[in-house]
User: Which sequence fits this backbone?
């Protein structure tokens, strides 16, 4: 399947990247790289939040009184979002466990 970037080149009557000057090739490759990045999924968001929680927990020993409330609130928010993301998985596991006990 032809990418949108290849379609643009075709509309401009450009047959290949070698017809672009070096700076245009750099831009094209950057766009192509960005265009081909995978979509963000619930899993990637969950992984990001886990990393952020770990960073905050690592900072706890160095908290000062001014940052303390802000960072505790930030940690609480990340934990709440993590629970929200994991809620369907936890519910499914509980249902599976109940069914398996029958």
Assistant:
């Amino acid at each position: 399947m032809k990418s949108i970037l290849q379609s643009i080149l075709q509309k401009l009557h450009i047959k290949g990247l070698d017809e672009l000057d070096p700076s245009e090739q750099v831009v094209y490759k950057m766009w192509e790289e960005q265009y081909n990045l995978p979509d963000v999924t619930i899993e990637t968001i969950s992984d990001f939040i886990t990393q952020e929680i770990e960073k905050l927990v690592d900072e706890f020993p160095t908290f000062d009184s001014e940052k303390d409330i802000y960072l505790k609130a930030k940690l609480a928010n990340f934990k709440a979002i993590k629970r929200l993301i994991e809620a369907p998985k936890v519910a499914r596991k509980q249902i599976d466990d109940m069914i398996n006990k029958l």
In short: Residues 4-35 form one domain. The helical segments are 4-11, 22-35, 42-59, 65-101.
